[in-house]
Specification:
Elements lengths: L13 H18 L9 E4 L6 E4 L4 H9 L6 H16 L24 H13 L7 H5 L23 H10 L4 H6 L9 H11 L6 H12 L13 H13 L9 H15 L4 H13 L5 H13 L12 E2 L6 E4 L1 H24 L1
Antiparallel strand pairs: 1-2, 1-4, 3-4
Helix pairs in contact: 1-14, 2-4, 2-14, 4-8, 8-9, 8-10, 10-12, 12-13, 12-14
Amino acid sequence: MNKMIKKPELKFEYSAVESAINRAIDFLWSNQLPDGEFKVYITGGNGSEKTSFFDSCIFVTAFILYALSFRETFKIEAMREKALNFLNTNMDQPGIWRYFSTKTKFRHTCPPDVDDTCCAAFVLKKYKITLNNKDIILANRNQDGLFYTWILPRFSMLFTQTRFCLNSLLSIPSYSTFWRFSECRPNDLDCGINANVVLYLGEIEETKRVIAYLIDVTLKGKETESDKWYLSSFPHYYFLSRAYFNGVKGLEVLKEKIISNLEQKFEQEGYDNPLDTALAACTFLNLGQITPTLQEAIGFLLAKQGTDGSWASSPFYFLGPKRIKSFGSLELTTGVCIEALGRYQQAICSLNIS
């Protein structure tokens, strides 16, 4: 027998949304680190033995920067300036990033990757900071045109990225521990990560086969089977819809599938996770859909905000399909909730004006 699912209220005032956004901004303002980083925690272990540690990295700060880009306030502008400086400080040449920041001893234990590189480079591009990194990203593909996760010295780079290859060859021995103790491999091909590459590079000749791959995997419902980091459909749908919203119109064929899947998921399982709910809300907004499900999602987020302005932490990504280690934080969830509430507010105002 299926349990009765209580749906969130659909009636809420503009002032309630505005208040929630402002309290969330205040939370990020108070919790951003002095160097501009937004924190994420890595959690490992089982049951009562689980432990969490601060994991200084690039991805979360780049991700929250994008989430904040839909709203302009004095505090957001100040946070943005610090966060952009953090990204610039942690960049390797020629315009690429590793997962770990310069603050951690683990920085050089894993190679640069296209996910952090493209997420960071895209948000820098939004603020008119351009990088000459397209060639090295394009050189990091397999024979089917899909992007490897890890930026490593490959045959395709020998003559176009000679300096990078020579420097990287010296670093390869330091990666051995990472390959040994993680589920990652040098030739990883991850679905969600390819979506973020398309976000940055756009819909160009070199990404056509990637777009076709993303469409095929999503229509078959195999997106989470095709990724070692993003093991839920919520981040995948968010990444795909974000790329679509930012100009990759070839992904439009996924609209109906994504919307239907999300509506069915909430109908069957209800609302119990602020992070997934906010990702879904952003996905609806990216696809231009103001639906009852979106309204319910917004009502749930308003009801679940903490007294300090944050929302509860949940795993966003994992260190492999075994899910031994997960990554999340109050800051990460709150950033996505700010995007969802702020963009919903803008969309409703636009509808009322028109």
